[in-house]
């Protein structure tokens, strides 16, 4: 080492050989960790799953996944989005499913299709969608044999086409638009349809 | 819900085009080429071959030991994504270590100096083993404890010293390979190793009885 200039990082000579103590701790530093071997397969699997998901076009399995699995994923996502939107729209005060018979048709009474959208009193309606979501889905699942059936049954039984399109549009729109969709669902209208 | 009303399509893996040559016999360059071409089997082999080394490297180098597996995973994801950039002049492990090192630095190691994960000073490194002086540790326990003590001592080194000691003494890379991978003069590599060894001796030698029973 260049001792005349302690700031010079250049090492002019060969490294000194390891003494006995250094040989021992460097040997231990290099020792194999059996835990890494034990957890190796799971680690490898996680990496490959992430790699396939992130780069579907770059792998054979990814290309097949894209062709076969994506339509199913898209359909499941659409059904979930539809149910979520339907639940939020129909979660109005007075629409208490606990007091209504267990029937898909009675879970979420639908407003008339030709009811005009009104923004005259947007603050009059204050939904609690989180509470309603659990109740409504539980009710829907009680009348269905499988969760998938319950989702499609809920959508089929309760959403009419124009409202369905509104739901999809709403799912794509920014959050503030929620007020516009919820505003026309006045509590008095929901109760009269129960 | 089915897209066309039919039963779900079963994925026949036997119909997938299989690699002509087994990957186990591929060298690093061949493996990287096949990974870059989208060969999933080659990707699996790359990870399988190198995961223990990369994870062990990060255990010694990374300040945040909780992040080791996450950083290792990210290392491999980047390597698989950019396999076409691998330079066969250096060993695959070395390339992976440079990626891991950069990720470790980005994670925040650069800001940590001269502290262990538990905040212990160097002369307190073995305090954890003094709580049960009567209990005879099993061999595997002792090995694990020793590894942890050495890794904690490494945290007292500068980042370059830590990385180069891990690359050379732990992973067995040659000095000129380290210099090339880190784009550093050979003399600088030796300097870091010299100073790192000296510092490790200062830290570990007082604990030599605990460290090497």
Give me the secondary-structure topology.
The complex is a heterodimer of chains A (194) and B (213).
Chain A: H1 20-29, H2 34-38, H3 40-54, H4 60-90, H5 104-107, H6 129-142, H7 147-158, H8 161-172, H9 178-182, H10 187-193
Chain B: H1 28-36, H2 40-61, H3 68-81, H4 92-107, H5 139-154, H6 159-170, H7 175-181, H8 186-204, H9 208-211
Topology of chain A as a string of helices (H) and strands (E):
HHHHHHHHHH
Strand segment count of chain B: 0
Instruction: State the share of residues found in helices of chain B, binned by percent.
Output: 55-70%
Strand content of chain A: under 5%
Q: What is the general shape of chain B?
A: globular
- Helix and strand content put the structural class of chain B at mainly alpha
Distance between the termini of chain A: 89 Å
* End-to-end distance of chain B: 65 Å
For the sheet with most strands of chain A, the description reads: none
Multimeric state: heterodimer
Strand content of chain B: under 5%
Provide the low-confidence segments of chain A as ranges: 1-8, 58-63, 95-131, 146-150, 188-194
**Count of helices of chain B?**
9
Quick tags:
heterodimer, A: 194 residues, mainly alpha, 59% helix, disordered N terminus, disordered C terminus, B: 213 residues, 56% helix, globular
């Amino acid at each position: 080492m260049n001792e005349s200039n302690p700031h010079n990082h250049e090492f002019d000579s060969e490294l000194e050989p390891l003494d006995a103590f250094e040989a021992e701790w460097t040997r231990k530093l290099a020792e194999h960790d059996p835990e890494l071997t034990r957890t190796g397969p799971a680690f490898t699997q996680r990496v490959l799953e992430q790699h396939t998901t992130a780069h579907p076009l770059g792998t054979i399995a990814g290309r097949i996944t894209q062709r076969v699995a994506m339509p199913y994923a898209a359909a499941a996502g659409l059904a979930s989005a539809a149910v979520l939107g339907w639940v939020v729209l129909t979660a109005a005060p007075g629409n208490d499913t606990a007091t209504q018979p267990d029937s898909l048709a009675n879970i979420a009474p639908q407003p008339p299709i030709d009811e005009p959208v009104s923004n005259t009193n947007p603050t009059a309606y204050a939904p609690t969608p989180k509470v309603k979501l659990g109740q409504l889905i539980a009710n829907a699942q009680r009348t269905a044999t499988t969760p998938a059936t319950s989702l499609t049954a809920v959508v089929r039984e309760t959403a009419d086409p124009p409202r369905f399109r509104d739901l999809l549009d709403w799912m794509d729109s920014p959050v503030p638009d929620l007020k516009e969709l919820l505003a026309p669902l006045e509590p008095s209208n929901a109760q009269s349809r129960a | 819900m089915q897209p066309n009303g039919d039963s779900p399509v079963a994925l026949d893996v036997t119909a997938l085009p299989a690699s002509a040559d087994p990957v186990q016999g591929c060298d690093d360059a061949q493996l990287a080429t096949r990974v870059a071409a989208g060969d999933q089997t080659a990707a699996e082999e790359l990870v399988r071959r190198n995961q223990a080394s990369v994870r062990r490297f990060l255990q010694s180098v990374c300040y945040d030991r909780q992040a080791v597996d996450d950083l290792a995973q990210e290392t491999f994801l980047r390597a698989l994504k950019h396999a076409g950039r691998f330079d066969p002049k250096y060993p695959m492990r070395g390339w992976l270590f440079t990626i891991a090192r950069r990720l470790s630095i980005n994670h925040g190691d650069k800001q940590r100096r001269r502290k262990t994960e538990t905040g212990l000073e160097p002369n307190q490194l073995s305090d954890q083993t003094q709580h049960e002086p009567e209990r005879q540790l099993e061999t595997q326990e002792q090995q694990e404890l020793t590894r942890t003590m050495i890794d904690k001592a490494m945290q007292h080194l500068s980042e370059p010293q830590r990385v180069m000691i891990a690359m050379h003494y732990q992973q067995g890379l040659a000095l000129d390979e380290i210099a090339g991978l880190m784009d550093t003069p050979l003399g600088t590599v030796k300097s870091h190793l010299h100073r790192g060894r000296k510092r490790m001796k200062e830290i570990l030698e007082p604990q030599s009885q605990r460290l090497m029973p």
